Amino acid sequence: MRNKIIAALCLIQILFAGAAAAETLTLGSCVRTALENHPDMVAAESKVASKKAAVGQSAADSRPQIKGGASYTRSDSTESVNDSGKYNASISLEQSIYDWGKRGLKIEGAKLNMDAAEAEYLDTRDKIILGVKSAYYNLNRSIRQYEVAKTRYDNYQKRLLWAKSYYEVGTKPKIEVTKAEADLANSKLTLVRVGSAAEQYRAQLASSMGIPMMDIKNVADVLSYEEWSVPIEQAVERAVLNRPYLASQRKRVEYTETLLALEKKGLSPEISASAGYNAYGSAPFDDNGWNARLSLNIPLYDGGLTKSRVEGAEAELVTAKAQLQSASNEVMLEVRKAWHALAEAGEALNASLEAERQARETYELAEGRYEAGVGSSLEISDAVESYALAQTNTILSLYECKAKRLDLEKAMGGLEE
After folding, report:
1. Structural domains of the chain, with CATH
2. Which of 93, 102, 45, 98 is nearest to 67 (CA)?
3. Rounded-to-integer distance, Cα 163 and Cα 155, Å
4. Count of alpha carbons within 13 Å of 125, Cβ hemisphere only?
5. HSE-CB for 172 with a 13 A CA cutoff
6. Which residue in 116, 122, 111 sits closest to 53, CA to CA?
7. Tens digits of residue pLDDT in 11-58
8. Rounded distance, CA 195 to CA 198, Å?
9. In three state form, how does the secondary structure of 242-295 look?
10. Which residues contact 120 (CB under 8 A, 6 or more apart)?
11. Which of 254, 230, 250, 253 is nearest to 411 (CA)?
């Protein structure tokens, strides 16, 4: 029964995903869907909850521990005169009074672990957003490239019709028709490949949202260029302050510092107190009594265990600090590379736009000449290919501007939805 319910819920999710995908998806809606559905987000949230619970577990040692119990015992023997049985009930309370700061360090360590988990959660969030936006931009790019390939195919269809008409009236040789048919076939192959790439990016976008079977149809186009810049020094500063990965590494350093301080207190005394009340007898509460105790526990020698633990904690602290420095270096390098890549993408876009303008003019002239019957097949083929290539380069440049900006924003940390 349970398996049937799960299967029904999965079917409903797939049907709902298919219906929702019929609408035009925006980038923002895709990101929100991913943050709500992606299993990595669920895992990161659960990890934070687990570390939060560990803080409560550490704090529990500082609170009173109360225990209670009751029993009834009955026995019989040949020598027994009275076999009425015996009752016993007790309640006790134990409280750690002072442990020279060990309890506080344990709680602080648990809190730092929770903070590190929260930073990892934010890092996971950035990765999810990065994956969605990257897939979305790739899908935008592939759709535009498909449109270019379709236009190229249509242009070759027109050229084939013209070549046939010229051949029929005797103004062009048979080779014009043959060449036009070959070019049309090649453009059809390109159209199929580009269309397949678009479908693959649709699947990638669905997977990045955590709904791999979602059938995506229409998405809003966001590849238009937007002027955006940030000084490189400011970008590096923001990354050092905001990058969740670095925040997580810093918390690891603080945790190992706390662990070292805790291990150094391995031979510290502990003071505890306890009290209890006991009622017992042949009948409930025939006899009763209470007890109280104050204890001082002073460890004298543990065979070098504390010394070894301190040495291990010191080594872990050195490792954590080195890893933090290495992570900082990697992040700063990532920011600088992303910044320069974005600047290069902007310059490349300007060149691509100019090349596309010139290629369009050349194509229009060549098309007019061929339509008038004075142009050659080589001239029109070169013009069609050059124009399609220029359009593709412009699309790639627009995509690169989006992708490199995304890389820079990811490097700085705190990606926006």
Report:
1. 2-63+100-267+303-412 (1.20.1600.10)
2. 93
3. 12
4. 17
5. 25
6. 111
7. 444 444 444 445 899 999 999 999 999 999 999 999 999 999 999 888
8. 5
9. HCHHHHHHHHHHHHHHHHHHHHCCCCCCEEEEEEEEEEEECCCCCEEEEEEEEE
10. 44, 47, 244, 248
11. 230
In which band, very low, low, confident or very high, does the pLDDT at 83 lie, cut at 50, 70 and 90? low
CA distance 179 to 378: 9
C-alpha 317/C-alpha 323 separation (Å) is 10
Rounded to two decimals, what is the model's pTM? Answer: 0.83
DSSP string over 132-189:
HHHHHHHHHHHHHHHHHHHHHHHHHHHHHHHHHHHHHHTSS-HHHHHHHHHHHHHHHH
Q: How far are the Cα atoms of 145, 222, 360, 402, 406 from residue 353, in angstroms, in the given order?
A: 15, 17, 11, 16, 22
* Per-residue pLDDT tens digits for 204-214: 999 999 999 99
The CA dihedral of 213, 219, 222, 223, to the nearest 10 degrees, is 80
Q: How far apart are CA 43 and CA 56, in angstroms?
A: 20
Which two structure tokens, joined as six digits, stand for 167? 């051949």
Are 18 and 215 in contact, with CB atoms under 8 Å apart?
yes
For residue 25, what is the DSSP state?
Answer: E
d(CA 318, CA 310): 12
**Residue 145 Cα distances to 14, 66, 136, 328, 357, angstroms:** 29, 71, 14, 39, 17
- Annotate 66-100 with b (16+ C-beta within 10 A) or e (fewer): eeeeeeeeeeeeeeeeeeeeebebbeeeeebeebe
Distance CA 365, CA 382 (A): 12
DSSP reduced 3-state for 38: coil
H/E element holding 8?
helix 2-21
Q: Where are the alpha helices (DSSP H) in 264-376?
A: 305-371
Q: What is the DSSP letter of 375?
A: S
Do 88 and 280 meet the contact criterion of CB atoms below 8 Å apart? yes
pLDDT at 356: 95
C-alpha angle with apex 302: 299 to 272, nearest 5 degrees? 25
pLDDT score at 81: 56
Residue pair 136/27 in contact by the 8 Å Cβ criterion: yes
Asked if the model's pLDDT at residue 78 lies above 60, the reply is: no
If 0-12 CB within 10 Å is exposed, 13-18 middle and 19+ buried, where does residue 268 land? Answer: middle
